[in-house]
Amino acid sequence: MASMSPPIHDLRQHDETATHFYLDVRCLICRFLGFIFGTETFGNHQQQQFPRKPENMERQSSFSRDLGHAAAETYLITRLTFTLLRYLGVGYRWYTRLVALACYALLLMPGFLQVAYCYFFSSQVRRSIVYGDQPRNRLDLYLPTNTDGPKPVVVFVTGGAWIIGYKAWGSLLGLQLAERDIIVACVDYRNFPQGTISDMVKDVSQGVSFVCNLIDRFGGDPNRIYLMGQSAGAHISACVLLEQAIKESRGESTTWSVSQIKAYFGLSGGYNLFNLVDHFHNRGLYRSIFLSIMEGEGSFEQFSPEVRIKDPRNREAASLLPPIKLFHGTSDYSIPSDASINLVESLKGVGAEAEVILYEGKSHTDLFLQDPLRGGKDDLFDHVVSVIHAGDEEALAKDASAPPRKRLVPEILLRLARHISPF
Protein backbone atom coordinates (compact mmCIF):
# COMPACT_ATOMS: atom_id res chain seq x y z
CA MET A 1 0.00 0.00 0.00
CA ALA A 2 3.00 2.30 0.22
CA SER A 3 2.68 2.91 -3.49
CA MET A 4 -0.64 4.63 -2.88
CA SER A 5 1.23 7.53 -1.23
CA PRO A 6 3.06 9.60 -3.87
CA PRO A 7 6.35 11.12 -2.69
CA ILE A 8 5.92 14.64 -1.34
CA HIS A 9 9.32 16.21 -0.86
CA ASP A 10 8.32 19.74 0.04
CA LEU A 11 5.02 20.95 1.52
CA ARG A 12 5.52 24.36 -0.04
CA GLN A 13 5.43 22.81 -3.52
CA HIS A 14 1.97 21.30 -3.06
CA ASP A 15 -0.53 22.59 -5.56
CA GLU A 16 -3.32 24.86 -4.39
CA THR A 17 -5.93 22.10 -4.26
CA ALA A 18 -4.54 20.46 -1.13
CA THR A 19 -3.99 23.84 0.49
CA HIS A 20 -7.59 24.88 -0.12
CA PHE A 21 -8.88 21.56 1.23
CA TYR A 22 -6.88 22.01 4.41
CA LEU A 23 -7.88 25.63 4.89
CA ASP A 24 -11.53 24.70 4.41
CA VAL A 25 -11.22 22.04 7.11
CA ARG A 26 -9.39 24.35 9.49
CA CYS A 27 -11.85 27.22 9.02
CA LEU A 28 -14.84 24.95 9.49
CA ILE A 29 -13.38 23.56 12.71
CA CYS A 30 -12.73 27.08 13.97
CA ARG A 31 -16.29 28.11 13.05
CA PHE A 32 -17.73 25.02 14.68
CA LEU A 33 -15.86 25.41 17.96
CA GLY A 34 -16.25 29.16 17.98
CA PHE A 35 -20.01 28.98 17.32
CA ILE A 36 -20.57 26.75 20.31
CA PHE A 37 -17.97 27.86 22.81
CA GLY A 38 -16.36 31.12 21.74
CA THR A 39 -12.65 31.90 22.17
CA GLU A 40 -10.56 33.51 24.86
CA THR A 41 -7.37 35.40 24.07
CA PHE A 42 -4.70 37.30 25.86
CA GLY A 43 -2.29 40.08 25.00
CA ASN A 44 -2.99 42.54 22.20
CA HIS A 45 -5.99 40.54 21.01
CA GLN A 46 -9.40 41.31 22.41
CA GLN A 47 -11.19 38.70 24.44
CA GLN A 48 -14.11 37.34 22.47
CA GLN A 49 -17.13 35.40 23.65
CA PHE A 50 -20.38 34.80 21.82
CA PRO A 51 -23.13 36.48 23.83
CA ARG A 52 -25.41 34.22 25.78
CA LYS A 53 -29.12 34.29 25.09
CA PRO A 54 -31.34 35.93 27.71
CA GLU A 55 -32.78 33.57 30.26
CA ASN A 56 -36.36 34.19 29.17
CA MET A 57 -35.86 33.08 25.56
CA GLU A 58 -37.07 29.71 24.36
CA ARG A 59 -34.14 27.36 24.93
CA GLN A 60 -35.59 24.28 23.31
CA SER A 61 -35.81 25.74 19.81
CA SER A 62 -32.39 27.35 20.23
CA PHE A 63 -30.86 24.03 21.29
CA SER A 64 -32.42 22.20 18.34
CA ARG A 65 -31.14 24.82 15.94
CA ASP A 66 -27.62 24.69 17.41
CA LEU A 67 -27.62 20.89 17.36
CA GLY A 68 -28.66 20.84 13.70
CA HIS A 69 -26.00 23.39 12.85
CA ALA A 70 -23.32 21.40 14.70
CA ALA A 71 -24.36 18.18 12.96
CA ALA A 72 -24.18 19.83 9.53
CA GLU A 73 -20.77 21.32 10.25
CA THR A 74 -19.46 18.01 11.62
CA TYR A 75 -20.60 16.16 8.50
CA LEU A 76 -18.92 18.70 6.24
CA ILE A 77 -15.68 18.66 8.26
CA THR A 78 -15.58 14.87 8.15
CA ARG A 79 -16.19 14.75 4.40
CA LEU A 80 -13.49 17.32 3.66
CA THR A 81 -11.05 15.58 5.97
CA PHE A 82 -11.45 12.29 4.11
CA THR A 83 -11.08 14.16 0.82
CA LEU A 84 -7.81 15.65 2.05
CA LEU A 85 -6.55 12.24 3.17
CA ARG A 86 -7.44 10.76 -0.21
CA TYR A 87 -5.66 13.60 -2.00
CA LEU A 88 -2.51 12.96 0.03
CA GLY A 89 -2.62 9.34 -1.08
CA VAL A 90 -3.28 7.78 2.31
CA GLY A 91 -4.19 4.11 2.02
CA TYR A 92 -6.41 1.62 3.73
CA ARG A 93 -4.37 1.44 6.93
CA TRP A 94 -5.22 5.03 7.77
CA TYR A 95 -8.92 4.44 7.11
CA THR A 96 -8.97 1.37 9.36
CA ARG A 97 -7.11 3.31 12.04
CA LEU A 98 -9.61 6.13 11.80
CA VAL A 99 -12.41 3.66 12.42
CA ALA A 100 -10.48 2.16 15.33
CA LEU A 101 -9.87 5.65 16.70
CA ALA A 102 -13.58 6.42 16.55
CA CYS A 103 -14.44 3.22 18.43
CA TYR A 104 -11.67 3.88 20.93
CA ALA A 105 -12.99 7.38 21.62
CA LEU A 106 -16.54 6.09 21.93
CA LEU A 107 -15.55 3.58 24.61
CA LEU A 108 -13.77 6.28 26.60
CA MET A 109 -16.54 8.81 26.05
CA PRO A 110 -17.85 8.70 29.66
CA GLY A 111 -14.53 10.08 30.81
CA PHE A 112 -14.06 12.43 27.88
CA LEU A 113 -17.43 14.08 28.51
CA GLN A 114 -16.60 14.78 32.15
CA VAL A 115 -13.23 16.24 31.20
CA ALA A 116 -14.77 18.27 28.35
CA TYR A 117 -17.33 19.76 30.72
CA CYS A 118 -14.57 20.98 33.03
CA TYR A 119 -12.51 22.18 30.08
CA PHE A 120 -15.27 24.40 28.72
CA PHE A 121 -16.99 25.51 31.90
CA SER A 122 -14.48 25.43 34.77
CA SER A 123 -13.25 28.82 35.98
CA GLN A 124 -9.83 27.20 36.47
CA VAL A 125 -9.29 26.86 32.71
CA ARG A 126 -8.21 29.79 30.58
CA ARG A 127 -8.63 28.67 26.97
CA SER A 128 -6.87 29.77 23.79
CA ILE A 129 -4.47 32.37 25.12
CA VAL A 130 -2.55 33.83 22.18
CA TYR A 131 1.23 33.44 22.30
CA GLY A 132 2.19 34.14 18.66
CA ASP A 133 1.07 35.28 15.23
CA GLN A 134 0.15 31.91 13.68
CA PRO A 135 -3.46 30.61 13.85
CA ARG A 136 -2.41 27.67 16.03
CA ASN A 137 -0.30 29.79 18.38
CA ARG A 138 -2.63 29.31 21.33
CA LEU A 139 -2.27 27.72 24.74
CA ASP A 140 -4.62 26.68 27.53
CA LEU A 141 -3.89 27.41 31.18
CA TYR A 142 -5.08 25.21 34.05
CA LEU A 143 -4.95 27.20 37.29
CA PRO A 144 -5.15 25.85 40.86
CA THR A 145 -7.94 27.08 43.08
CA ASN A 146 -5.36 27.89 45.76
CA THR A 147 -3.80 31.23 44.82
CA ASP A 148 -1.45 31.57 47.79
CA GLY A 149 2.05 32.27 46.51
CA PRO A 150 3.60 31.57 43.07
CA LYS A 151 3.00 28.06 41.75
CA PRO A 152 5.24 25.67 39.82
CA VAL A 153 4.39 25.42 36.13
CA VAL A 154 4.32 22.54 33.65
CA VAL A 155 4.48 23.38 29.95
CA PHE A 156 2.84 20.41 28.24
CA VAL A 157 3.11 19.55 24.53
CA THR A 158 0.52 17.05 23.28
CA GLY A 159 1.09 14.21 20.85
CA GLY A 160 -0.89 13.23 17.77
CA ALA A 161 1.56 11.80 15.21
CA TRP A 162 2.51 15.36 14.18
CA ILE A 163 -0.87 15.44 12.37
CA ILE A 164 -3.76 15.49 14.84
CA GLY A 165 -2.24 17.16 17.89
CA TYR A 166 -4.42 19.65 19.77
CA LYS A 167 -3.94 21.47 23.06
CA ALA A 168 -7.19 20.14 24.55
CA TRP A 169 -5.72 16.61 24.49
CA GLY A 170 -3.89 17.66 27.66
CA SER A 171 -7.07 18.54 29.56
CA LEU A 172 -7.07 15.52 31.85
CA LEU A 173 -3.44 16.01 32.84
CA GLY A 174 -3.95 19.75 33.26
CA LEU A 175 -6.97 19.40 35.52
CA GLN A 176 -5.36 16.71 37.66
CA LEU A 177 -2.09 18.60 38.13
CA ALA A 178 -4.02 21.79 38.95
CA GLU A 179 -5.61 19.87 41.84
CA ARG A 180 -2.06 19.54 43.23
CA ASP A 181 -1.42 23.30 43.06
CA ILE A 182 0.54 23.10 39.79
CA ILE A 183 -0.20 25.42 36.86
CA VAL A 184 -0.28 23.68 33.48
CA ALA A 185 0.14 25.39 30.11
CA CYS A 186 -0.92 23.15 27.19
CA VAL A 187 0.72 24.54 24.07
CA ASP A 188 -0.87 24.17 20.64
CA TYR A 189 1.24 24.13 17.47
CA ARG A 190 0.87 23.80 13.72
CA ASN A 191 0.24 20.23 12.56
CA PHE A 192 1.04 18.73 9.16
CA PRO A 193 0.13 19.72 6.48
CA GLN A 194 -0.33 23.23 7.89
CA GLY A 195 3.30 23.09 8.97
CA THR A 196 6.32 20.80 9.06
CA ILE A 197 8.67 19.89 11.89
CA SER A 198 10.62 23.16 11.88
CA ASP A 199 7.32 25.06 12.19
CA MET A 200 6.26 22.84 15.09
CA VAL A 201 9.55 23.36 16.92
CA LYS A 202 9.34 27.12 16.33
CA ASP A 203 5.76 27.27 17.63
CA VAL A 204 6.48 25.30 20.79
CA SER A 205 9.59 27.35 21.49
CA GLN A 206 7.45 30.50 21.23
CA GLY A 207 4.94 28.98 23.61
CA VAL A 208 7.66 28.15 26.12
CA SER A 209 9.00 31.69 25.78
CA PHE A 210 5.54 33.10 26.51
CA VAL A 211 5.26 31.02 29.67
CA CYS A 212 8.79 31.84 30.86
CA ASN A 213 8.23 35.57 30.43
CA LEU A 214 4.58 36.07 31.38
CA ILE A 215 3.44 33.20 33.62
CA ASP A 216 3.90 35.37 36.72
CA ARG A 217 0.81 37.30 35.58
CA PHE A 218 -1.20 34.14 36.20
CA GLY A 219 0.37 33.27 39.55
CA GLY A 220 3.14 31.08 38.18
CA ASP A 221 6.74 30.97 39.33
CA PRO A 222 9.04 31.76 36.36
CA ASN A 223 11.89 30.04 38.21
CA ARG A 224 10.03 26.72 38.57
CA ILE A 225 9.02 25.71 35.07
CA TYR A 226 8.96 22.10 33.86
CA LEU A 227 8.73 20.99 30.25
CA MET A 228 6.74 17.85 29.39
CA GLY A 229 5.75 16.19 26.13
CA GLN A 230 3.87 13.06 25.12
CA SER A 231 4.51 10.95 21.99
CA ALA A 232 5.07 13.33 19.06
CA GLY A 233 4.92 16.15 21.60
CA ALA A 234 7.80 14.54 23.51
CA HIS A 235 9.86 14.54 20.31
CA ILE A 236 9.03 18.17 19.48
CA SER A 237 9.67 19.45 23.00
CA ALA A 238 12.97 17.54 23.20
CA CYS A 239 14.02 19.21 19.94
CA VAL A 240 13.03 22.59 21.39
CA LEU A 241 15.01 22.04 24.59
CA LEU A 242 18.16 20.85 22.82
CA GLU A 243 17.97 23.59 20.17
CA GLN A 244 17.67 26.21 22.90
CA ALA A 245 20.67 24.78 24.77
CA ILE A 246 22.73 24.80 21.56
CA LYS A 247 21.82 28.44 20.87
CA GLU A 248 22.78 29.47 24.38
CA SER A 249 26.06 27.56 24.22
CA ARG A 250 26.93 29.49 21.06
CA GLY A 251 26.04 32.84 22.60
CA GLU A 252 23.04 33.46 20.34
CA SER A 253 20.28 35.83 21.43
CA THR A 254 17.24 34.05 22.94
CA THR A 255 13.93 35.05 24.50
CA TRP A 256 13.99 32.41 27.24
CA SER A 257 16.63 30.41 29.04
CA VAL A 258 17.17 26.68 29.50
CA SER A 259 18.04 27.50 33.11
CA GLN A 260 14.36 28.32 33.70
CA ILE A 261 13.44 24.68 32.94
CA LYS A 262 13.95 22.69 36.12
CA ALA A 263 13.34 19.28 34.53
CA TYR A 264 12.14 17.70 31.30
CA PHE A 265 9.58 14.86 31.30
CA GLY A 266 9.28 12.82 28.11
CA LEU A 267 6.36 10.40 27.88
CA SER A 268 6.35 7.66 25.23
CA GLY A 269 8.43 9.71 22.83
CA GLY A 270 10.63 8.96 19.83
CA TYR A 271 13.96 10.74 19.58
CA ASN A 272 15.78 9.21 16.62
CA LEU A 273 14.08 9.67 13.23
CA PHE A 274 16.51 7.31 11.50
CA ASN A 275 15.18 4.44 13.65
CA LEU A 276 11.54 5.43 13.35
CA VAL A 277 10.92 5.99 9.63
CA ASP A 278 10.62 2.28 8.73
CA HIS A 279 8.76 1.47 11.92
CA PHE A 280 6.14 4.12 11.24
CA HIS A 281 5.88 3.10 7.58
CA ASN A 282 4.96 -0.44 8.63
CA ARG A 283 2.33 0.93 11.00
CA GLY A 284 0.65 3.12 8.38
CA LEU A 285 2.43 6.46 8.67
CA TYR A 286 3.91 6.01 5.22
CA ARG A 287 7.45 6.97 4.40
CA SER A 288 6.49 9.69 1.90
CA ILE A 289 4.25 11.44 4.43
CA PHE A 290 6.78 11.04 7.24
CA LEU A 291 9.52 12.52 5.05
CA SER A 292 7.23 15.44 4.23
CA ILE A 293 6.53 16.06 7.92
CA MET A 294 10.24 15.89 8.78
CA GLU A 295 11.37 17.89 5.73
CA GLY A 296 13.25 15.01 4.14
CA GLU A 297 16.02 12.68 5.27
CA GLY A 298 18.47 15.57 5.18
CA SER A 299 16.77 16.99 8.29
CA PHE A 300 16.76 13.76 10.28
CA GLU A 301 19.93 14.58 12.19
CA GLN A 302 18.77 18.07 13.12
CA PHE A 303 15.47 16.76 14.49
CA SER A 304 16.84 13.62 16.17
CA PRO A 305 17.89 14.62 19.72
CA GLU A 306 19.54 11.23 20.27
CA VAL A 307 21.82 11.79 17.27
CA ARG A 308 22.37 15.51 17.70
CA ILE A 309 23.47 15.30 21.32
CA LYS A 310 26.39 13.05 20.29
CA ASP A 311 27.86 15.73 18.03
CA PRO A 312 31.10 16.93 19.67
CA ARG A 313 30.17 20.48 18.71
CA ASN A 314 27.19 20.25 21.06
CA ARG A 315 29.09 19.02 24.11
CA GLU A 316 28.81 22.37 25.87
CA ALA A 317 25.05 22.45 25.19
CA ALA A 318 24.68 19.11 27.00
CA SER A 319 26.00 20.69 30.19
CA LEU A 320 23.18 23.26 30.08
CA LEU A 321 20.36 20.72 29.93
CA PRO A 322 18.13 20.23 32.99
CA PRO A 323 17.55 16.78 34.51
CA ILE A 324 15.75 14.62 31.96
CA LYS A 325 13.29 11.90 32.92
CA LEU A 326 11.75 9.66 30.29
CA PHE A 327 8.76 7.38 30.84
CA HIS A 328 7.80 4.52 28.55
CA GLY A 329 5.66 1.38 28.53
CA THR A 330 7.36 -1.87 27.55
CA SER A 331 4.33 -2.88 25.44
CA ASP A 332 4.31 0.35 23.46
CA TYR A 333 4.07 -0.68 19.80
CA SER A 334 3.57 2.83 18.43
CA ILE A 335 7.00 3.96 19.61
CA PRO A 336 9.10 1.16 21.16
CA SER A 337 10.57 1.79 24.60
CA ASP A 338 14.07 1.45 23.11
CA ALA A 339 13.58 5.03 21.89
CA SER A 340 13.70 6.34 25.47
CA ILE A 341 16.40 3.91 26.57
CA ASN A 342 18.71 4.94 23.74
CA LEU A 343 18.24 8.66 24.33
CA VAL A 344 19.09 8.30 28.01
CA GLU A 345 22.23 6.36 27.14
CA SER A 346 23.25 9.08 24.68
CA LEU A 347 22.63 11.81 27.25
CA LYS A 348 24.60 10.03 29.94
CA GLY A 349 27.40 9.52 27.43
CA VAL A 350 27.89 13.29 27.20
CA GLY A 351 27.54 13.92 30.91
CA ALA A 352 23.90 15.01 31.06
CA GLU A 353 21.63 13.95 33.92
CA ALA A 354 19.06 11.52 32.54
CA GLU A 355 16.87 8.64 33.70
CA VAL A 356 14.44 6.27 32.02
CA ILE A 357 11.53 4.69 33.91
CA LEU A 358 9.87 1.72 32.22
CA TYR A 359 6.37 0.47 33.00
CA GLU A 360 5.98 -3.23 32.41
CA GLY A 361 3.15 -4.18 30.05
CA LYS A 362 1.96 -0.61 29.48
CA SER A 363 0.94 0.48 25.98
CA HIS A 364 1.34 3.81 24.19
CA THR A 365 -1.94 5.15 25.59
CA ASP A 366 -2.05 3.42 29.00
CA LEU A 367 0.24 5.92 30.69
CA PHE A 368 -1.44 9.02 29.30
CA LEU A 369 -5.12 8.06 29.02
CA GLN A 370 -6.32 4.74 30.39
CA ASP A 371 -4.46 4.92 33.72
CA PRO A 372 -5.54 8.52 34.53
CA LEU A 373 -9.13 7.69 33.51
CA ARG A 374 -8.98 4.65 35.79
CA GLY A 375 -8.42 6.86 38.82
CA GLY A 376 -6.86 5.78 42.08
CA LYS A 377 -3.09 5.59 42.41
CA ASP A 378 -0.97 6.34 39.35
CA ASP A 379 2.78 5.78 39.67
CA LEU A 380 3.72 8.05 36.77
CA PHE A 381 1.56 10.93 38.00
CA ASP A 382 2.88 10.56 41.54
CA HIS A 383 6.46 10.50 40.29
CA VAL A 384 6.04 13.69 38.26
CA VAL A 385 4.35 15.49 41.16
CA SER A 386 7.06 14.37 43.60
CA VAL A 387 9.76 15.82 41.34
CA ILE A 388 7.92 19.12 40.98
CA HIS A 389 7.25 19.41 44.71
CA ALA A 390 10.69 18.21 45.80
CA GLY A 391 11.96 20.46 48.61
CA ASP A 392 8.50 21.85 49.37
CA GLU A 393 7.54 20.07 52.58
CA GLU A 394 4.08 21.63 52.75
CA ALA A 395 3.23 20.57 49.20
CA LEU A 396 4.57 17.06 49.77
CA ALA A 397 2.44 16.74 52.90
CA LYS A 398 -0.65 17.78 50.93
CA ASP A 399 0.22 15.24 48.23
CA ALA A 400 0.51 12.48 50.83
CA SER A 401 -2.95 13.25 52.22
CA ALA A 402 -4.64 13.88 48.85
CA PRO A 403 -7.69 11.66 48.20
CA PRO A 404 -7.46 9.03 45.45
CA ARG A 405 -8.30 10.34 42.03
CA LYS A 406 -11.81 9.71 40.83
CA ARG A 407 -12.49 6.89 38.36
CA LEU A 408 -13.95 8.35 35.16
CA VAL A 409 -14.50 5.24 33.01
CA PRO A 410 -15.66 1.72 34.01
CA GLU A 411 -12.92 -0.90 33.90
CA ILE A 412 -14.58 -3.02 31.21
CA LEU A 413 -14.64 -0.06 28.81
CA LEU A 414 -10.99 0.71 29.55
CA ARG A 415 -9.98 -2.86 28.74
CA LEU A 416 -11.97 -2.88 25.50
CA ALA A 417 -10.48 0.48 24.50
CA ARG A 418 -6.97 -0.81 25.11
CA HIS A 419 -7.70 -3.80 22.91
CA ILE A 420 -8.86 -1.78 19.90
CA SER A 421 -6.60 1.25 20.33
CA PRO A 422 -5.04 2.25 16.98
CA PHE A 423 -1.96 3.57 18.76
From TrEMBL:
The UniProt similarity line reads: Belongs to the AB hydrolase superfamily. Isoprenylcysteine methylesterase family.
Q: Which residues form the BD-FAE-like domain?
A: 139-347
Task: Tell me the classification of the organism that encodes this protein.
Answer: Eukaryota, Viridiplantae, Streptophyta, Embryophyta, Tracheophyta
Whether Repeat counts among this entry's keywords is no
Broad EC category: hydrolase
Q: Name one GO cellular component term.
A: endoplasmic reticulum membrane
Pfam families reported for this sequence:
BD-FAE
Membrane-spanning intervals of the chain: 94-120
GO molecular function list = hydrolase activity
- Sorted alphabetically, which InterPro entries does this protein's record hold? AB_hydrolase_fold, BD-FAE-like_dom, Carboxylesterase_B_AS, GDXG_lipolytic_enzyme
Q: Where in the cell is it found?
A: Endoplasmic reticulum membrane; Golgi apparatus membrane
The alphabetized UniProt keywords are: Endoplasmic reticulum, Golgi apparatus, Hydrolase, Membrane, Transmembrane, Transmembrane helix
Q: What is its main location?
A: endoplasmic reticulum
Which chemical reaction does it catalyze? Answer: [protein]-C-terminal S-[(2E,6E)-farnesyl]-L-cysteine methyl ester + H2O = [protein]-C-terminal S-[(2E,6E)-farnesyl]-L-cysteine + methanol + H(+)
Its protein name is: protein-S-isoprenylcysteine alpha-carbonyl methylesterase
Source organism of the structure: Gossypium tomentosum
